Amino acid sequence: MKISPQFRDLAVAQGFIAVLLFLLIPLANLYGGSGAHRLAGVLHGIGASMTLLVATYTWHAYYNYARGIKGARVKLEWRLLVTNVLVLLTVIIGNWLYIGYQAPEGASEWFKLHLPFGHWVVMEYKEFVSLMTIPFGIVAAVIIRRFAGMDEKRPEIRHAVGVLLTMMWLCLLIGFTFGLVLSKWKGV
């Protein structure tokens, strides 16, 4: 079976975006300062990186599901479960990091004084968008589980799952990118 051109183009674009972002991580770390919550930052960064990689892997499992290949639904369910668990763990660790961010004389105060855009737009937007991955992933998993077997007769179910997975992946990408930018503006 041949992958249709629009899926191939999307896969190539996702691959290039992911490679570019992961190649920029060491460069961005050159400019990072030392922070009091370095362990939380490292764990959150590793969690965010792993989550984005696994979510990309999950999204690519959707291709076979969208084409109706036998056994693809089960693979997609498992990958989506792993992605959702990683998202929850990364959010929990991010909340641990957020305590230091909001602490007196923390990065939040520095941003509000020197770069209000960094806090009010980038951080708040990043926080909101990153949290949106949770409902997108859970709803996609529920739809896959709830309508198992019916998705062959009703392609709109597969399309809805595709939209949810795309939104989840885009939210993860935005959160990852903005988090990287924020951590390098002021050693969070």
Please tell me about this protein's structure.
- By secondary structure, the protein is mainly α.
- 82% of the residues lie in helices and 0% in strands.
- α4 packs across α5.
- It is elongated.
- The chain starts with a helix and ends with a helix.
Order of helices and strands: HHHHHHH
DSSP strand (E) fraction? under 5%
- Ranges with pLDDT <50 over ≥5 residues? none
Helix share bin:
over 70%
- DSSP helical segment count: 7
Number of E strands: 0
* Radius of gyration from the alpha-carbon trace, in angstroms: 18 Å
Shape: elongated
The helix/strand class is mainly alpha
Average pLDDT reading: 80
The rounded distance between the terminal residues' Cα atoms is: 48 Å
Largest sheet: none
Keywords:
7 helices, mainly alpha, single chain, 188 residues
Structure summary:
The chain is built from seven helices and no strands. It has 188 residues and is mainly α.
Furnish the topology, listing elements before pairings.
Layout: H1 5-29, H2 38-66, H3 72-102, H4 107-114, H5 116-131, H6 133-146, H7 155-185
Helix pairs in contact: 1-2, 1-7, 2-3, 2-7, 3-6, 4-5, 5-7, 6-7
